[in-house]
Amino acid sequence: MCLAVPMRIDSIDRFVAQCSVRGVSRDVSLFMLEEGSVSVGDYVLVHVGYAIQVISAAEAAATWEIFDEALSTA
To answer: What is the pTM of this model?
Structure first.
């Protein structure tokens, strides 16, 4: 099973995006996405350092709600 984390794109330099979520920033490769398919402010699903899919802000928030619920019952 794989886990992808929703993150917001803060800046883009060619095929590398600086992404953040909840105070954590990471460099994320955009190599797996179609060139020009993302912009600063977009949300992406990040798996092992690669953006694998563009998602909406609502989808990102809903995913974090599910993560929070799962972690609160652990």
So the answer is: 0.90
